[in-house]
Amino acid sequence: LRGSAPHFPGLLLRISRHGGRAFHQTLASMEEPMMFGVPEAGLRRVLFYSTLTAMTTGLGALPLVNCQAVTSRNIALSNCAAAGMCFAASLALSLEGFAESRLKVALGALLGYLFIVVTRDFIERHEDIKFDALQGASARKTLLLLVVMTAHSFAEGVGIGVSFKDRDVFGVYVSTALAIHNIPEGLAIALVLVPQGTSVARAALWAVFSSLPQPFMAIPAYLFVHQFEGLLPIGLGFAASAMAHVATFELLKDAKEEMLKAKGTTGEVYGALTSAFVAMLAVQWALHEASE
Q1: H/E run at residue 134
Q2: CA–CA gap between residue 253 and residue 83 (Å, rounded)
Q3: Any idea what DSSP says for residue 106?
Q4: pTM for this entry
Q5: What string of DSSP letters covers 38-68?
């Protein structure tokens, strides 16, 4: 016993160290509850910011509050503006995906094209389809646009969830950028709906509906970040292809037809298209510069 006495203080110190470390770990776990293996506070942040991002889409309908005259010219110009915004968003999504994998973006683009073909075929088989205040060809075109906008929100939701995994600051930035980006997307939807008789309030609700996949996808992407990171370029290519297809073969085509009814010129069509395209690209560029 006498020989072992000198070692007792060291043993006690080691016990206290181990006990203190275990106590602090237990205290930390009590202070920060876990859910599905990740901090619960992190999940709440992702859900809050992704939901807020989706809600801002409805703000895009506000510029049309005073839109009253439903004329062929107004419908044509609105379709041109919506098409220009879709083209710009499609380009931005493609470039973002190219930074990760061009092959995956190409695969996503092919899937997006097939998705549009199948969806359009299904919608066109139902000639008596109605959507909100619209029916017939107008309802089919608008429904297709809304389906595409909703589908592309899945990729944006994945982007939000992945961005929060390493740094909250970066996640907040990505969410803010997407929230700003969603406003003109909501405007693109409202530009198709409001000039054809849908109220601004209902157009805003449909715009928000198109972004609801963002919070639904952000949570699983945050939980399984490594699996979802590899799928993101495919989703971006899918969205870019689908949006470009609808802009070319639905919105721009209808814009030309409506402008002919209004006895307008092709120059007016492409002028409005180019203006909207450049404006949307300017927003994308400003958001990119803010991240540098």
Answers
A1: strand 134-135
A2: 10
A3: H
A4: 0.72
A5: EEHHHHHHHHHHHHHHHHGGGGGGGGGTT--
